[in-house]
Amino acid sequence: MQPVPAAKNWDLPPIESPGALAEWLEVTPAELRWFADLEGLAYKRDRPLLSHYHYRVLTKQYGNLRLIEAPKPRLKEMQRQILNTILQAVPPHPAVHGFVKGRSIKTFAARHVGQRVVLRMDLQDFFPTFSGARIQSFFRTLGYPESVADLLGGICTNATPHSAWAGAAMAADLIHLRDVQSLYARPHLPQGAPTSPALANYCFYRTDCRLAGLAKSAGAEYTRYADDLAFSGDDAQFERGIDTFSTHVAAILMDEGFRVHHRKTRVMRRGVRQYLAGLVANERINVIRADFDRLKAALTNCVRSGPETQNLDAHPSFRSNLEGRVAFVEMINPARGKRLRAIFDQIEWP
């Protein structure tokens, strides 16, 4: 892999050797090799106390599994330095709205407001699909020597040991569990690392280019928020050919090494609720009415009966949880958010 010409214009720190990388990260060369773990010792030895990550298995809809891999403090600090100093200097694709400064799910959905037809597609196992080799190649395209790029890639990826899946057999089909274990066993982007969203966006860049080109050729719009893809058009011909268009999208994604979650694919025409990332996009961006009503009822009951009666999920900081949900509505629909904020301010907290 050769550095892309555009990298010359990016303000990237010059790191010419593994020793320089260790100095930049303020660790010894031995510590750098341990954290990067290019030999996969953490996976091979499978000793939780020696692992760089904490693991939590979640069961998703349809019985699928998702693994949250949260880096321990020292590794997380190193990843944040890579994110803030290297990754944030690289511009994302214009169609990307997830984990990009100044963009959000609101901007992700805004391009599709008022369209005749909206197509929503979802990718399976998004983060673990990006292999360690792919991440190392990305750092080489930034201009870093192979030895440095491999270490940077090692710091930002993980191979999940078998012990991380303890107890998951009760929550999933055994065949599916084996498939997931195999996927996570190779070095991949861990969901939970601060560097993973940005690296996924950059490594998806070529796919974004191909999908944006396909959409443009059909007179359609394309945006992406992490593993959520949205296409829309206001042309009758695009609406008639939406099934064929969806097949072309799936073919591009498969060619690039990704899998479509076909059960979540939705074609939403006018007359039905067109929703993207939990937002309604028919005539204007708005929160789903049922979600708004539930939050309003919870706030009202907090005022009447006290907040402890509404903390059904035992949030350790229920006040922050509620305030965050109110702030989200304020961002999407300021008028509705103002009404919720007025109720929130009446709550008497212990």
Describe the structure.
The chain is an alpha+beta fold and about 350 residues long. It has 15 helices and ten strands. The chain has helices spanning about 20-25, 30-35, 40-45, 75-85, 105-110, 130-140, 145-155, 175-185, 195-205, 205-215, 235-240, 240-255, 290-305, 320-330, 335-345, and strands at about 55-60, 65-70, 115-125, 220-225, 230-235, 260, 265-270, 275, 280, 285. Helix 2 (about 30-35) crosses helix 7 (about 145-155) and helix 6 packs across helix 7. The longest helix has 17 residues, at about 290-305. The protein is globular and about 55 Å long.
Low-confidence stretches: none
Number of contiguous helices: 15
Per DSSP E runs of 2 or more residues, the count of β-strands stands at 10
User: Hey, roughly how much beta strand do the residues contain?
Assistant: 5-15%
Could you write a compact summary of the structure shown?
This protein is an alpha+beta fold. Helices cover 45% and strands 13% of the residues.
Key terms:
five-stranded antiparallel sheet, 350 residues, 15 helices, 45% helix, alpha+beta, globular
